[in-house]
Write a structure and sequence with these properties.
The chain is mostly beta strands. It has a single domain, classed as Nucleic acid-binding proteins (OB fold (Dihydrolipoamide Acetyltransferase, E2P), Beta Barrel). 0% of the residues lie in helices and 54% in strands. Strands 1-2-3-5-4 form a five-stranded mixed β-barrel.
Length: 85
C-alpha cells in the first residue's frame, strides 16, 4: 500500500512534443497472459507537463503524478534520464 503523499513515478520515452509545454510519453509494462503464462508488452501513453520545452522525441524521461493540469494532463516531467542521440 502507498504511503500518503507518495506520488507514482514511471519512466518512458517521449513520442511527441508538438504541443507547447506538453509531451506525450509512452510507458511500457509487462503483463502476464492469463492462458499462456507468457509476458506480453503493453503500452500506455501519458500527456505530461514540460515547463521548459526541453524534451525531444526519443528522450527517456521520468514523469511524476500530479494534480490535474488540463483535461488530459495529470503528469509532470520530473527529469530527463537519457537524451536521444
Amino acid at each position: 500500500m502507498k504511503e500518503r503523499g507518495m506520488k507514482r513515478q514511471v519512466v518512458g520515452v517521449v513520442v511527441s512534443n508538438r504541443m507547447n509545454k506538453t509531451v506525450v510519453v509512452a510507458v511500457e509494462r509487462l503483463v502476464k497472459h492469463r492462458m499462456y503464462q507468457k509476458y506480453v508488452k503493453r503500452q500506455t501513453k501519458f500527456s505530461a507537463h514540460d515547463e521548459t520545452n526541453s524534451c525531444q522525441i526519443g528522450d527517456t524521461v521520468q514523469i511524476t503524478e500530479s494534480r490535474p493540469l488540463s483535461r488530459t494532463k495529470r503528469w509532470r516531467v520530473s527529469k530527463i534520464v537519457e537524451k536521444a542521440a
